[in-house]
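Entry 14. Two folds queued back to back today. First construct below, sequence then structure tokens.
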Amino acid sequence: MFNGRDVISISDFDRNEIERILDFSERMVPVAKGDRYADPLKGKILATLFFEPSTRTRLSFESAMNRLGGRVLGFAEPKGTSLAKGETLADTVRMAAAYSDVIVLRHPREGSARLAAKYSEKPVINGGDGAGQHPTQTLLDLFTIRQDKGKLDGLNVAILGDLKYGRTVHSLSMALTNFDTKIHLVSPKELRAPREVVNHLKERGTEVSEVADLEGVLDQVDVLYVTRIQKERFPDPMEYQRIAGMYRVDEELISPYPDLTIMHPLPRVNEIAPDVDILPQARYFNQAFNGVPVRMALLALVTGMAEALGEEAGEEVAR
């Protein structure tokens, strides 16, 4: 089902496949924490090709590969590679595939991951392609929601902030259509979700509301997913300055809702105040950690080593 498979868009996975990944990720948590030992990917190499800045995605993939006994090569700054000499993405991917067993690609151009998969003989995992998709972030988001709420069905989810350029938003909202959820899209009109995304949600039978007022929906939702206004995506800096800071989640706003789960893909700027960090509703740092077990599961699955990992995950770490 997963061996040799590319991970390009969350839409390529159905509910059963998503749940299988989440179930397997749950088994990986002790290994991700270092409480148990497994090295089924010993001898395997992960190539990380990051054409855009990244902290959590790149480091969690590297941590995941190392926890599984594999090794990592790649770059976080394309200026030091032959790309600076004019090499095409296709040729870079071909070379990386020759040197590794699986590739993680982050690129500013939407559709780049699917293009890379076309030229790679090894599995390609999309680590974010412009304003397009970020499927591994979506899987760890779903994992975090299920971990906190105990389910994915029957939830009201509010997604706040940059819904126009936010690839995490596009992926998460599409993934939620596999479950019985209601989605509230909260943004200024300038950053509303693309019509094709909203139409897709509705075509899939998901109840969707689009509003600008966050406080008007807080008493209805189980999960508040906050995103930053992405300055780097704005073609007009003046437009960014006008919109930035429109929403701010702080303790005063959140305290009346003790059962609310607050998430954020990070990095944050000022859309979530530091005073929220210590509240039990805040789950974004747990969410960031969850990138490790989820990406461990994906690496094991696409390399065909999931069965071996399941067996070795039972071994206690030598102390």
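Second construct, same run, same settings:
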Amino acid sequence: METINYKRVYVWELPVRIFHWINAISITVLAVTGFIIANPPALLSSAEASDSFWLGTVRFIHFMTAYIFFFNLILRIYWSFVGNQFASWRSFFPFSRKSWRNFLHVLKVDILLRHKKHPEITDLSVGHNSVAGLSYFILFLLALVQIFTGFGLYSDMSDWWLPDLFDWVVPLFGSDFMVRKIHHISTWLFILFVLIHLYLVFYHDWLDGRGEVSSMFGGYKFVVGQRVKQKKTEPEQENTKETS
């Protein structure tokens, strides 16, 4: 069996990994608390209703997590301009000929399940592949929908200037009902994305064996040697090790 030369490459910087996990936790908390707010269960308690403020606590957790989600996204946008090439905003726009070639290749592997017979030739991505990059861009737009509709609904209950910036959203759509409906549908789209994302991450981790899952913890991926550029920055040179 032919041995392929792999290099251990530092791909995901610490701010990107922090963003990823804060985002994952925030989406989970927002979805769970959002469904409870939309359809609160009837909790039986011997205490008086005035002494039981559990739904208020759920709403508080939902609103605080929304702020975390919002500012976390702002920091990720900032890092897309100052981070390395794998964190750059350019990686989310697969419009070059090479990117489209990678896009079609990934679709063949993920949808048609055509295993790569020559990884040294067909391994076209180090960071996000073109399909992932485009899907994350769509997810970013979906996050904006959630932020605008969520803060739009919250603006009437808040005295802070930030939510008040979105007080035009409800009048734009005509009613709270329509904005809540959009917010609710977007939540289900987030859940659908998460399910597909988890499947593909573990699928590629098993199929490629390049550390797809562990890379979001430690930052390193194993890349076919031919894919690593000869000219690297000094930090990349220090963090790149050859393996077989």
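Quick look at the second one. The two ends are 13 Å apart (CA to CA). Residues 118-123, 230-244 have pLDDT under 50 and may be disordered.
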